[in-house]
Amino acid sequence: MEHAAFYQKLCTILSKEQVLCSEPMSRHTTFRTGGPADYFVMPRTEQAADVAALCRREQMPYQIIGNGSNLLAADQGIRGVVIAFTRQYAHVQADGTCVTASAGALLSQAAGAALKAGLAGLEFAAGIPGSVGGAVVMNAGAYGGEMKDVLEKVKVLSQDGQVLEMECGELDLSYRHSCIPQKHLTVLEAQFRLAPGRPEEIQARMDDLKQRRIEKQPLEYPSAGSTFKRPQGNFAGKLIMEAGLAGFRMGGAQVSEKHCGFVINTGNATSADIRGLIRQVQQKVLEHSGVALEMEVKCIGEFE
Fold this sequence. Notes:
4-stranded mixed β-sheet, 304 residues, single chain, 24% strand, alpha+beta
């Protein structure tokens, strides 16, 4: 259908402020790269089903993202609709020993709400630069904690437009894995079951983890966090360093010298630079150690 007509239909569901046309993905990914999405829409949780239904009805391709913290978007951009759950339309609420957060809420927001309510268990997530929805999908974790340790249940949107509630045990959560992508589900909301704690101790734990991140990770550069999944019985950063790849570059993309598990944008990288560097690292580590590194970062759009 004509773009103008589709735009008008989007605007019957969303406000015009929630619909951006030809929006650069570089504004919405932590790598700070990526070309324009045809439509970049930011629904509230309760609007998501209607937006997805419209896309299906009009045969308009769409993909759903969160904070863009684990994404590499193609330089050529994204055709169709990017549905983004963003923090400005998110909610977080503490009730008893539970914290409930919509998919677009940042993990730092959820952890902050837990701290304010005197609830322990989400400290590990406070420094992860991602959204609640994305964290559930990939069972995000850090410093010994994972989503599956604290997640109680989620609300999801099925491919046929139904809103379903699923218990944590139904999600097949393991290291950086859930069944959510395979079942074509979209996380709308998550509920975490936490434990009462002393706010000063919770804050101290958050401060300690924050300091460890500052000391060990290249937070001063755009990146997507850990670029590779942890190989069984080893560490990606260690294998990359042993292959002599610290500081290895391709265009504006570089293997961080501070932490070799991070690929960083030194300022003018393209997504093609980053993808090419990742492939080189995978090849050289395989040649050096025999270990096949698996990307933790998800690519969207068309790459050569």
